[in-house]
Amino acid sequence: MKLYCLSGHPTLPCNVLKFKSTTIMLDCGLDTTSVLNFLPLPLVHSPRLSKLTGWTSKDGTVNLEKELKECAGRVFVDSQPEFCLPERELLDLSTIDVILISNYHCMMALPYITEHTGFTGTVYATEPTLQIGRLLMEELVNFMERVPKAQSATCWKNKDLQRVLPGPLKEAVDVWTWKRCYSMHEVNSALSKVQLVGYSQKVELFGAVQVSPLSSGYSLGSSNWIIQSHHEKVSYVSGSSLLTTHPQPMDQSSLKNSDVLILTGLTQMPTANPDGMLGEFCSNLAMTIRAGGNVLVPCYSSGVIYDLLECLYQFIESANLGTTPFYFISPVANSSLEFSQIFAEWLCHNKQTKVYLPEPPFPHAELIQTNKLKHYPSIHGDFSSEFRQPCVVFTGHPSLRFGDVVHFMELWGKSSLNTVIFTEPDFSYLDALAPYQPLAMKCVYCPIDTRLNFHQVSKLLKEVQPLHVVCPEQYTQPPLSQSHRSDLMLELTPPPMPYRRCSVLNLPFRRRYERVYILPELANSLTPNEVKPGVSVATVSAVLHSKDNKHTLQSVPKPPPVAPSKKRKRVVEEPPVGLAPKPLLSGAVPLESFLVTLQKHGITEVKVEETPDGHILHLQAEDTLIQLEDDGTHIVCDNNEPLRTTLRDLVLRFLQKL
Amino acid sequence: MPEIKVTPLGAGQDVGRSCILVSIGGKNIMLDCGMHMGYNDDRRFPDFSYVTQNGRLTDFLDCVIISHFHLDHCGALPYMSEMVGYDGPIYMTHPTKAICPILLEDFRKITVDKKGETNFFTSQMIKDCMKKVVPLNLHQTVQVDDELEIKAYYAGHVLGAAMVQIKVGSESVVYTGDYNMTPDRHLGAAWIDKCRPDILISESTYATTIRDSKRCRERDFLKKVHESIERGGKVLIPVFALGRAQELCILLETFWERMNLKAPIYFSTGLTEKANHYYKLFITWTNQKIRKTFVQRNMFEFKHIKAFDRSYADNPGPMVVFATPGMLHAGQSLQIFKKWAGNEKNMVIMPGYCVQGTIGHKILNGQRKLEMEGRATLDVKLQVEYMSFSAHADAKGIMQLIRMAEPRNMLLVHGEAAKMEFLKGKIEQEFNCYMPANGETAMVTTNPSVPVDMSLNLLKREMALGGPLPDPKKPRTMHGTLIMKENSLKLVSSEQALKELGLNEHQLRFTCRVQLQDPHSDPDTLHRVYTHLKSVLKGYTIQHLPDGTVMVESIVIKVSSSAEDVNAKVLLLSWSYQVQQSPTYLFFRRFRPRFGIFFGNV
């Protein structure tokens, strides 16, 4: 059993597990942090961005001023943003049988894997994961296609040139494999390969392996996966949460008894408490509005935003923000808000109870009804006429490189009255802000990451006790910036097996048994013998049928009666075929009882001679010797088949047959 | 032989009060717990005394599963759990869990508040009963206990309707509840995978019917409503609040829009708004088309359909009224019916099945004079139309489901005996079909395979020998030892079995002395024996070993000569018990003809 690691990003994993002749991809996360190296894509012409100076090396030998622009001491690529894909050379992607998706954030690379690679397998995901994942992909495509960029910069990727570049560009890895965003056509094609599954549904793969998603408590429809056969169990833990937010709570007990547990998707903010961050978010928001400023919240269109809106629903009245307009701008804003209300089965208990009333599970329905929250597909159209300030705007993309957020950064960046509040933990906020510098607006960093922290995960592992843990190497040492915090890493015995991008791990597994089925006819014909108290054995002779990785044992068919041949019997003898072999024997033959038995069968003249290892019985009338020892019996006689058979059967009476 | 027992307490050769007991692998499951619309006495509920004469049911049942929210499937639930007594888990889907208590409360109100019955379950009992409910998701495998697992499939009949698979070990039963194999305007079609249950318990409401296409029925329905409205008549459509009502509402709503009609459409009882809200929140349970477009246009937001007030019934002019309940046995639909029955311009359309004993059933059978309470009679002059809109599978649908699930046995419930008999005849051409009456038990013997854990070494060896594909003409036999310890069954090679059990092998060997006369030296005699055997025993491995022995397979042959007579040789044949065939057979048959002269007394 092997694990191929195609992504080095611990929260956007992409691993491939080879298990019992199946090839299973676990998640296909898209590392979007690469877009931070690019200039933002403005929705309307930005004089500031177009006036940035091009970059040439200090000595003037390298001139890339068409492709690279300088802004506040940093260099950015002036091209359509590109993503860092999972490794595609480590193994042949067309051999992948299935892809298991754990949550909608971890499927964004799907079109790159399923399209144009010869992939012919199936993707498994829950319904909310599919629907919301589709929305996020749609949004991404829309963001990119709305502002097409004529230029596609490639010269800077030249190895020799990249080496002399400044800053993060120089260290960027695998830049040649970076890819532009996929098209909607590719998204639709990729998602048409998705097969929906429900929590605890058991899905058989080729009869060899069973996979089953479990609630992971992180987002709507998010799941961990169990991959098991009758004797081996691998748990795949990705993006899980023990906090009570909107999703169904995490199913922990089903992870028990795993041989291997693959652990990914822990919190990216191990030191930030989500509740505290939420409080800070609200107070900063209120403070800015009261001072007459606007608040910009760069966020994804699904996930934490539901919790933010719920929090604000309770907060608005008490903070006297009843008249402040809240805007949610995204091509999929409406769909995201609507979809969140129809997944009752996937919600926490409290929200389910509301649906039974029947009431919408999320209070943002009421915010919309009372006109406190308005949603628009983009800043164009209705929004431009209905827009009032001061206001709060939720919009994407959290990288600040594309989407409507770029417009608001340009619009509000110059005033210190306004505030941008970062809630998504995926991007460093300083890097995100870099191309907007110098900036007058206030920046507040309240990353809300509800995924497991190190304390929670060690408690979890203590409870479910996997034999081995596999995790990204980042989790086996404290974060670089806090190297003294040994509590911010995994300490386990045996130590976890770390992986990095392009690792291939041999998982410690010894498969010893396989489930087979004995058909009733054969089962009824077996005769068990008790060899020890509570332990019985039976010898089995059967025909093995293996089909679709399922093995059954059937009775041996009776050989067809041989037609009496008219030919003269040939002299040449063939070895007999198909006869059951005789069982192995165990035990010892007790002398006294054996003698009594012999006597009963008319063998009375027996001379017993003691030897170091046992006895020799001389059957004088028959001129036969029987050598009795603890682990052997030897019958020596002339060619007297009936006698030999009798003696054999008498000896066998005292022995166990296996 | 293991057996599965199925006993209907209700719905056995009947429609109403569905309640079926299943015993499988030592587990007892109650499927549905419904009431009968046709009775107002004890026969209204299933006879739980069948399970136990006194005391609570908890000890006798492992779980209760409710297939959908119709009262003939869940109406007796609070009575069963709170009045008879059951504290175990009750499984139902989320929509059923949401809607079921509302219908139960309605049922309670009509029975207690309107008819003044006592000794009926209370509102509190409904609440307490619902606390025992565990929600089920589609396709989720729910482990009731270590051995019993259940799984729900989409049934399409009403919002949240499910079929369930019950499994213990390798035995399984599928119960369909009510289901529909053709998608309609708001729900999808039932679906199940090829799970090959030992028994498929299917409803058979429309066992003998093969219905024409849904489109035709819809057109007919719209034409009748339209004609009636055109001539100024009033149309009453008795429905149950949830289910058919929504489908017909969608149908009329789109028709009204298309034809630009102005006549009002009303929906009785306050449940409408609420009911439609359930459909909006559980949109994932509706059909593909509605699910796909719900963000742009929610099909359950009606423009033309308004809430009904009792006073509207006397308004002049045409109107269409949806009123509950669906079988005209009580409530608002019955009141309106009484008001409108006298006018031949009016029309009542019965869109679903009516249970015997209800007014709906009577008028559908052509009765034009009805005896009402207090000896009054009611002349029925209005037009009576029947449109089969209830979403049950017809004969074709039932056969379709059989093809999908491939059961080994079939058991019919929820239908009329005569109709069942017909379908049973058809099914029995292929396999056994049962149709027990209430209180009767159908027993099905199952023949489960025995799962064992086979040593991978042994399996791989066998698979390697057998080649990649099994050859049906030349079955290969494998041999091993089955170790039975506590609950584990392991199949290993005999050698491994000895090792695992910590036993020593006992060698049983035989040696046979054969006297013969041969003038050659001992090694030469042995060599002569070797060459002879080589020539006659084709296909055997024969080796002449340097230690002065000849081996035929695992039989050892040695030669020694006696001290007195160098020509008198003794041939020692030695073999172990495990040798397939007694070597003497081999040797003496082959030796005698040619070497006979060498043998002494054999």
TrEMBL record, chain A:
It comes from Nothobranchius furzeri (Turquoise killifish). Keywords: Cytoplasm, Nucleus. This is Integrator complex subunit 9. GO terms for biological process: negative regulation of transmembrane receptor protein serine/threonine kinase signaling pathway; regulation of cellular response to growth factor stimulus; RNA polymerase II transcription initiation surveillance; snRNA 3'-end processing. It holds the Pfam family Lactamase_B_6. It is found in: Cytoplasm; Nucleus. SMART domains: Beta-Casp (SM01027). One of its GO terms (cellular component) is integrator complex. SUPFAM superfamilies: Metallo-hydrolase/oxidoreductase. Residues 548-569 are annotated as: Disordered. Residues 305-433 form the Beta-Casp domain.
Automatic annotation (TrEMBL), chain B:
Its cofactor is Zn(2+). The keyword Cell cycle does not apply. GO terms for molecular function: hydrolase activity; metal ion binding; RNA endonuclease activity. Gene3D superfamilies: 3.40.50.10890, Ribonuclease Z/Hydroxyacylglutathione hydrolase-like. Pfam families: Beta-Casp, IntS11_C, Lactamase_B_6, RMMBL. Keywords: Cytoplasm, Hydrolase, Metal-binding, Nucleus, Zinc. Belongs to the metallo-beta-lactamase superfamily. RNA-metabolizing metallo-beta-lactamase-like family. INTS11 subfamily. This is Integrator complex subunit 11. The lineage of its organism: Eukaryota, Metazoa, Chordata, Craniata, Vertebrata.
